[in-house]
Amino acid sequence: MNLKITPFKAILFSLLLLIAAVPGIMTMQTMHTPNALPESQLIELVPGANIRHLARQLQQHDLLEHPKLFVLWTRLNGDAKHLKAGEYLIQPGTTLSEVLDDITSGRVHQYPLQLLEGWTFKEFMQAIRDHSAITHQSTDLTQQEILDLLAIEYDHLEGLFFPETYYIHKNTSDIEVLKRAHALMKKNLHDLWQQRDADLPFSSPYEALILASIVEKETAVEDERALIAGVFINRLRKNMRLQTDPTVIYGMGDEYDGDIRFRDLRRDTPYNTYTRKGLTPTPIAMPGLESIRAVMHPASTDYIYFVAIDDDSGRHKFSSTLTEHNRAVDQHQRKK
Question: Has this prediction a pTM greater than 0.85?
Answer without folding.
Answer: no
